[in-house]
């Protein structure tokens, strides 16, 4: 893995140059993001990471290089530090917060099992920030011929292949008696009819699991739209978020549109950073709460990046609106309580056996500590202790597009980052 990352760099003939230093607010944003990612690494560190020091000397060296609109700082070129640089075109699309937000999301691109970025993804900028031996850094910004150019340099070096950036806090492994056989078949097929509708469900205490002896939650009969197919695009985050919008709307407003309500995942893929290379749930809700999201008929899914982003629909067609969104913590009890109100979108880890799932109650064969996929939880069976998962890999995968995932453990890391759901 290269220690110098150059992203979205174009071969450009520069005919003019305007150097743009950070404003004080921008610099404070850079420092705040670094402090936050270092203080609250994802997944959690076994021991606190040493705080980083912002070094103006490093920043000045990088700024001198970036002001020429080409090349890397001597610190990076001489192998004494790590560096990333991004280009934004046009400069009007650039903001420091958006840049740092995109880097923060790269934690989901890191594969802790092989200690490297997942294939065809970017994670080095995030990796440099959380690398345990890095102690200081400096950043710079320039405007080059109408394009924004930002970078940061870190000392000492980090981001080495096969080396963990820090020691992850270990989650205790469940005992064998807590873990059902991965391929075991439920003794009875889970009912597709919710035994409790929203109007029938009592309001449980947020801190306790519902006390029913045989609680069954299953929203698939009338409140879950058809299984979709994300295709060859890492857009699970868009599908999981949009599916929650559809289901929660049907629960709130009646299910007469269950077979026809179809919102645009492509709208999210086109408008949010990384697109087919990954994203996160709450970013979808943040981006589309105010402008609303398009319907599929106005912005059909293409399974590709690079499509124009629009927060309006053609020909003044209406958009789909929601009030806001809520979240659950990393508590199983809290997730189950919220499932009684409707489906919840979560992240989890997908391994080879997950991809080959076809039936039965599944559990990951080892304990994972991060996530690489997003799904919608549409139900829970207390008697056999499993969740019902809606995936976005077509009806040809799993049990007609669904999975029964063991809730007896969190081997697949589904609870770690909590869940999200829209509100109406």
From TrEMBL:
<dbReference type="InterPro" id="IPR013128">
    <property type="entry name" value="Peptidase_C1A"/>
</dbReference>
<dbReference type="InterPro" id="IPR000169">
    <property type="entry name" value="Pept_cys_AS"/>
</dbReference>
<dbReference type="InterPro" id="IPR014044">
    <property type="entry name" value="CAP_dom"/>
</dbReference>
<dbReference type="InterPro" id="IPR000668">
    <property type="entry name" value="Peptidase_C1A_C"/>
</dbReference>
<feature type="region of interest" description="Disordered">
    <location>
        <begin position="165"/>
        <end position="215"/>
    </location>
</feature>
<dbReference type="GO" id="GO:0006508">
    <property type="term" value="P:proteolysis"/>
</dbReference>
<dbReference type="InterPro" id="IPR038765">
    <property type="entry name" value="Papain-like_cys_pep_sf"/>
</dbReference>
<feature type="signal peptide">
    <location>
        <begin position="1"/>
        <end position="20"/>
    </location>
</feature>
<feature type="domain" description="Peptidase C1A papain C-terminal">
    <location>
        <begin position="213"/>
        <end position="423"/>
    </location>
</feature>
<dbReference type="InterPro" id="IPR035940">
    <property type="entry name" value="CAP_sf"/>
</dbReference>
<dbReference type="Pfam" id="PF00188">
    <property type="entry name" value="CAP"/>
</dbReference>
<dbReference type="Pfam" id="PF00112">
    <property type="entry name" value="Peptidase_C1"/>
</dbReference>
<keyword id="KW-0732">Signal</keyword>
<feature type="compositionally biased region" description="Low complexity">
    <location>
        <begin position="180"/>
        <end position="200"/>
    </location>
</feature>
<protein>
    <submittedName>
        <fullName>Gamete and mating-type specific protein A</fullName>
    </submittedName>
</protein>
<comment type="similarity">
    <text>Belongs to the peptidase C1 family.</text>
</comment>
<dbReference type="InterPro" id="IPR039417">
    <property type="entry name" value="Peptidase_C1A_papain-like"/>
</dbReference>
<dbReference type="GO" id="GO:0008234">
    <property type="term" value="F:cysteine-type peptidase activity"/>
</dbReference>
<feature type="domain" description="SCP">
    <location>
        <begin position="25"/>
        <end position="162"/>
    </location>
</feature>
């Amino acid at each position: 893995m290269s220690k110098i990352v150059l992203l979205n760099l174009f071969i450009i003939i520069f005919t003019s140059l305007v150097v743009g230093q950070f404003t004080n607010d921008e610099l404070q944003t850079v420092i705040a993001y670094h402090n936050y990612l270092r203080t609250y690494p994802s997944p959690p560190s076994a021991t606190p990471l040493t705080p980083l020091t912002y070094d103006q000397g490093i920043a000045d060296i990088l700024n001198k290089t970036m002001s020429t609109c080409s090349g890397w700082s001597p610190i990076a070129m001489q192998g004494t530090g790590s560096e990333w640089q991004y280009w934004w075109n046009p400069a009007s699309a650039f903001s420091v917060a958006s840049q740092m937000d995109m880097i923060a999301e790269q934690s989901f691109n890191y594969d802790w099992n092989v200690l490297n970025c997942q294939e065809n993804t970017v994670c080095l900028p995030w990796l440099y920030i959380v690398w345990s031996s890095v102690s200081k850094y400096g950043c710079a910004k320039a405007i080059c011929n109408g394009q924004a150019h930002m970078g940061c340099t870190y000392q000492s070096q980090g981001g080495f292949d096969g080396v963990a950036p820090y020691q992850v806090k270990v989650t205790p492994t469940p005992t064998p008696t807590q873990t059902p056989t991965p391929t075991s078949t439920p003794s009875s097929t889970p009912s597709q009819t919710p035994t409790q509708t929203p109007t029938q469900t009592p309001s449980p205490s947020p801190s306790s699991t519902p006390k029913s002896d045989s609680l069954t939650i299953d929203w698939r009969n009338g409140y879950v739209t058809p299984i979709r197919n994300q295709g060859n695009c890492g857009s699970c985050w868009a599908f999981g978020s949009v599916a929650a919008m559809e289901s929660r709307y049907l629960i709130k407003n009646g299910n007469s549109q269950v077979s026809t309500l179809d919102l645009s995942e492509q709208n999210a893929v086109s408008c949010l950073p990384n697109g087919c290379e990954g994203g996160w749930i709450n970013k979808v809700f943040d981006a589309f709460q105010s402008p609303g999201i398009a319907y599929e008929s106005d912005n059909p899914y293409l399974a590709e990046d690079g499509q124009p982003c629009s927060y309006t629909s053609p020909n003044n067609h209406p958009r789909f609106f929601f009030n806001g969104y809520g979240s659950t913590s990393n508590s199983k009890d809290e997730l189950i309580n919220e499932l009684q109100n409707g489906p919840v979108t979560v992240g989890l880890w997908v391994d080879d056996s997950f991809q080959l799932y076809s039936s039965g109650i599944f559990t990951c064969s080892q304990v994972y500590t991060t996530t690489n996929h997003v799904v919608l939880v549409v139900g829970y069976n207390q008697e056999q202790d499993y969740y019902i998962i809606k995936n976005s890999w077509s009806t040809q995968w799993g049990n007609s597009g669904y999975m029964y995932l063991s809730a007896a453990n969190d081997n697949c890391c589904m609870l770690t980052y909590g869940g999200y759901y829209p509100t109406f």
